[in-house]
Amino acid sequence: MKVRDSGMPEQNYWESLFDIAGILNGLEINQEIADAVEVGCGYGTFTLPVARRIRGTLHSFDIEADMVATTLARARDSGVLNVRAAVRDVVASGFDLPPDSVDAVLLFNILHAENPTQLLQAAATVVRPHGRVLAIHWRSDLETPRGPDLSIRPRPEQIVTWGCSVGLAPEKNVLLPPWHFGVVLRRRK
Ligand SMILES: C[S@@+](CC[C@H](N)C(=O)[O-])C[C@H]1O[C@@H](n2cnc3c(N)ncnc32)[C@H](O)[C@@H]1O
Predict the structure, then answer these.
(1) How far is 85 from 166, CA to CA, in rounded Å?
(2) Residue 167 falls inside a structural domain
(3) In this structure, is residue 77 part of a structural domain?
(4) Which domain holds residue 175?
(5) Using CA positions, which residue lies closest to atom 11 of ligand 1?
(6) Distance (Å, whole) CA 54 – CA 114
(7) Which of 112, 107, 115, 181 is nearest to 144 (CA)?
(8) Residue whose CA is closest, atom 22 of ligand 1?
(9) Are 58 and 36 in contact, with CB atoms under 8 Å apart?
(10) What is the CATH number of the domain that holds 164?
(11) Residue 180's beta-bridge partner residues?
(12) CB burial of residue 21 (10 Å; 0-12, 13-18, 19+)
């Protein structure tokens, strides 16, 4: 099932709304990560920059075939070889990766889902012990140019509570200007 309110505006506009390097720095996405998973790759806005920073493979999924095609084409055109993008409904079918198999799971602009704890549970299962689940979302404490309705927009403390309920420990919350916040959760064991 496609996550509610997860349609995308035009690509250039969408990508003008993020300081991508600032976000990846804030979440400490770097060579300490080998393999990672990204839920809902969209246009590949974060896929390529993340893939360039990590040591291993980035497994990216999206329910929309055209989003996956765009992401794969961008990776190919840029010579980024460590992206494995696939069409998949992660809400219905999870990640199709072994438990405990990746260092990080990226949940970017997706936790306004109908059942966010289901996504966090899937993330907590696939990430290795002491690996990290990294969420970003639109802030609610200021007016933003995009983002889901405030009534379904998750706040940092909600994401922490949901994460704790599936065995993830809160590590840090960060502001990711101009419009986002990030939550870093770590699998306990
Ligand atoms: C708001 S966009 C965010 C895209 C990307 N994470 C970013 O921040 O640029 C959400 C993406 O999740 C995808 N999506 C929605 N429901 C999904 C599902 N059940 N399984 C996989 N992808 C899904 C949408 O097609 C869309 O590309």
Answers:
(1) 26
(2) yes
(3) yes
(4) 11-187
(5) 40
(6) 30
(7) 181
(8) 62
(9) yes
(10) 3.40.50.150
(11) 138, 176
(12) exposed
Distance CA 20, CA 50 (A): 9
Residue 3 falls within a domain, yes or no? no
| Cis bond before residue 116 (omega within 30° of 0) | no
Tens-binned pLDDT, residue by residue, of the chain (189 aa): 998 988 899 999 999 999 999 999 999 999 999 999 999 999 999 999 999 999 999 999 999 999 999 999 999 999 999 999 999 999 999 998 999 999 999 999 999 999 999 999 999 999 999 999 999 999 999 999 999 999 999 999 999 999 999 999 999 999 999 999 999 999 987
Pocket test for ligand 1, best of 1, 4, 5, 6 (most atoms within 8 A of CB): 6
**Looking at the whole model, is its pTM more than 0.90?**
yes
Q: Quick check: CB of 45 below 6 Å from ligand 1?
A: yes
Q: Sheet harboring 168-176: ordered strands across?
A: 83-87, 58-62, 36-39, 102-108, 127-138, 180-187, 168-176
CA of 150 to the centre of ligand 1 (A): 18
**3-state percent helix, strand, coil for the chain, nearest multiple of 5:** 30, 25, 45
Please give the tally of structural domains in the chain.
1
Domain-embedded: residue 26: yes
Other CB atoms within a 10 A radius of the CB of residue 63 amount to 18
